[in-house]
Amino acid sequence: MNVMTALTVPDIDDVTVVDFDAQEERIYWADIKSQTIKRVFINGTQLETIISSDIANCRGLALDWLSKNLYWLSSENDESQINVARFDGSLKTSIIHGIDKPRCLVLHPAKG
């Protein structure tokens, strides 16, 4: 039987999306009030801010646990884009611009 206890993490303001990395047992989330993407182990330790800009109106977050890439969907000034970075926030870049009113982001790492 799998049981997950409640997680108490400081500095959570306005979370819009959440994803989970089962291999590293970390929860990732986007907070649009603080304009950050953060992560923490499921036991509540090692809270980290991994992206601290470029997440305006973040409405999608997806983890590719095979390549260790994090993707997020952001919108600013009526332009939406898909961005990518490594799990630690390095190598951040925008990969697709000008998407018309996207609502979410989903990956299938096993299929590429």
From TrEMBL:
Q: Where are the LDL-receptor class B repeats?
A: 25-67
Q: Which SUPFAM superfamilies match?
A: YWTD domain
Instruction: Please list which residues make up the signal peptide.
Output: none
State the PROSITE patterns in the record: LDLRB (PS51120)
The keyword Lipoprotein is annotated on this UniProt entry: yes
Per its UniProt record, what Pfam families does this chain match? Ldl_recept_b
Q: What is this protein called?
A: Low-density lipoprotein receptor- protein 1B
* Organism taxonomic ancestry: Eukaryota, Metazoa, Chordata, Craniata, Vertebrata
- Name of the gene encoding the protein in the UniProt record: LRP1B_6
